[in-house]
Design goal:
The protein is an alpha+beta fold. It has helices at about 1-10, 35-55, and strands spanning about 10-20, 25-30.
């Protein structure tokens, strides 16, 4: 899911370590995009998708 979302901003997740309650990622972001905008977009869209899928639990 995160790889698909990153592609919307022309970015690539190079390395990731997923834990039970958080994630560590190395993301390749093109210079035309601000890092804060891409990270905010990833967090926003992934939170929405997770809430839709697992919100009732």
């Amino acid at each position: 899911m995160l790889h698909e979302i990153a592609q919307h901003k022309e970015s690539e997740i190079v390395e990731e370590h997923l834990m039970a309650d958080h994630a560590h990622m190395c993301i390749g972001i093109p210079p035309k995009h601000a890092v804060s905008n891409v990270v905010g977009y990833l967090k926003d869209k992934s939170a929405i998708q997770i809430a839709r899928e697992y919100g009732s639990r």
